[in-house]
Amino acid sequence: MNRRSFHRATEAERRQDLIAATLDCIAETGLQGATVRQIAMRAGVTGGLIRHYFAGKDEMVQAAYRETMTGMTSIAIGAAEAAGGSAKNRFRSFIVANLTPPVTDSRTLSLWGAFISQIRVDPEFAAIHRENYQAFIAALEMLIGAFLKEEGRIETADDCRRHAIAINGLVDGLWLEASLAGDMFAESELPGIALGSIESILDLPAGTLSDSRINGKENI
C-alpha cells in the first residue's frame, strides 16, 4: 500500500498560509472583524504560533496589504512577459491584464476597500502604498518607453513618467468600474476603452493599440 508522503511546511509556507488566512478573514468580516483568534482558527493554528511569525494583528494586516498589491502588479507584469513578441504586444497585454480577471475581482475590491482607509492613518500602510505605486509606475514607464521606441519615438524619462502617471490614473478608474459592476460591460469593452484612451494620451493615431484582438476576440 502506498503511503501519502508527509510534508512539513517551511517557515515561509507557514507565514504565507497565515497571510492567506488574514486575507480571507478581512474579505469576509472587514479589518475590525478579522481578529487574531479568527485568523488562527482559519489557518488551523494556535495564537502562539501566529506570534512566532508576526508581532501582532497590525503586522499581519500590513503583510496582507502588501500581498494584495504586489499580487495584482505581478499578474500584469507576468501577462506582459508571457505575451512576448513586440513591445506593443507586451504593453497591450499589461493594460488588458489590469482590466480583466483575476485582477478585476469583487474579493480583491473588498480587500482594497478595507485597506485603503489605513493609508492616511498608518505610516507603514502609507509606505507599502508608495512602494507598490512606484513599482507599478516603473513597470509602466519601461513598457511605454519600449513601445514608443518601437513606434519610432524616443521619449525622455520625464515624458515616460508623465505618461505612466496619466495611464495609471485611467487604469485605476476603469479597474474600479470593472470590479464594482463588471456585468454591465462586454468582456473586452473596458480594455478597449483603455487602449483607445491611451492612444490619445500618447498622441498616437486611432487604432494603433485598439485595433488588435483582446483575449482572442475582436476589440469593438
TrEMBL record:
Keyword Transcription regulation included in the entry's annotation: yes
Protein name: TetR family transcriptional regulator C-terminal domain-containing protein
Keywords for the protein's UniProt record, in alphabetical order: DNA-binding, Repressor, Transcription, Transcription regulation
Gene Ontology molecular function terms on file: DNA-binding transcription factor activity; transcription cis-regulatory region binding
InterPro entries cross-referenced by the UniProt entry: BetI_C, DNA-bd_HTH_TetR-type_CS, Homeodomain-like_sf, HTH-type_TetR-like_transc_reg, HTH_TetR, Tet_transcr_reg_TetR-rel_C_sf
UniProt DNA-binding residue ranges: 35-54
PANTHER family: HTH-TYPE TRANSCRIPTIONAL REGULATOR RUTR, TRANSCRIPTIONAL REGULATOR-RELATED
Source organism: Ferirhizobium litorale
UniProt entry tagged with the keyword ATP-binding: no
Residues annotated as domain HTH tetR-type: 12-72
